[in-house]
């Protein structure tokens, strides 16, 4: 591997770090706090997006389930063919779209609104339809993606994941979730052994 390729690859760390810092600067504390309160009390949490955003939603719903906040990832393709029936009043639906205009997600809005669920949108565009239709907007900032062509969902994935991680940390504290509870639902692996004193 030549030095130019290696430098470009290692530059990904600096690129993502820059966007994480930029996101911390634009993410309004009052909006974050409102999102934490909603996620702490929602009957169910549903997260949805397309492409890399949907994959990141899987990470988020896993985190929520690990602290006993019932959550699922909803594919827009399945949602638009009947699975929106899973959404009920009292639920929180998290939409993830950097541009805030993803067609498949926009098509979900009327049903989600009719269900009277709380909409949380994570986006870079506060003037987008997904932001304007939301009850709470969590702003992100992506200076650029890591690849040469600024196309792959790399930095945007890292930023979205970091927002989800921050939400998990806050919801865990806000709900008083304990290691003892986690030990019950996570008996497997090294973490389970450590929590259950079996190491």
3D architecture notes:
The protein is an alpha/beta fold and 199 residues long. It contains ten helices and five strands, in the order ααβαβαβααβαβααα. α1 packs across α8 (155-175) and α3 (52-66) runs parallel beside α8 (155-175). The longest helix has 24 residues, at 3-26.
Describe how the helices and strands are arranged.
Blueprint: H1 3-26, H2 29-41, E1 45-48, H3 52-66, E2 71-73, H4 76-79, E3 92-96, H5 103-106, H6 109-114, E4 118-123, H7 129-132, E5 136-139, H8 155-175, H9 179-185, H10 189-195
Parallel strand pairs: 1-2, 1-3, 3-4, 4-5
Helix pairs in contact: 1-8, 2-8, 3-8
Key words describing this protein structure:
11% strand; 10 helices; five-stranded parallel beta sheet; single chain; alpha/beta
């Amino acid at each position: 591997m030549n030095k130019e390729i290696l430098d470009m690859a290692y530059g990904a760390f600096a690129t993502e770090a820059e966007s994480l810092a930029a996101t911390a600067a634009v993410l309004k504390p009052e909006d974050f706090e409102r999102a934490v309160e909603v996620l702490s009390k929602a009957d169910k949490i549903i997260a949805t997006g397309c492409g890399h955003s949907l994959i990141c939603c899987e990470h988020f719903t896993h985190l929520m389930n690990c602290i006993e906040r019932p959550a699922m990832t909803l594919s827009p393709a399945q949602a638009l063919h009947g699975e929106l029936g899973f959404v009920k009043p009292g639920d929180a639906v998290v939409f993830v779209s950097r541009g805030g205009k993803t067609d498949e997600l926009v098509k979900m809005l009327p049903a989600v609104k009719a269900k009277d669920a709380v909409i949380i949108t994570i986006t870079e565009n506060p003037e987008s339809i997904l932001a304007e239709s939301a009850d709470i907007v969590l702003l992100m900032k992506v200076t650029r993606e890591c690849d040469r062509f600024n196309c792959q969902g790399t930095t945007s994935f890292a930023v979205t994941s970091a927002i989800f991680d921050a939400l998990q940390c806050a919801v865990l504290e806000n709900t008083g979730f304990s290691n003892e509870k986690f030990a019950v639902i996570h008996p497997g692996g090294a973490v389970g052994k450590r929590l259950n004193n079996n190491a």
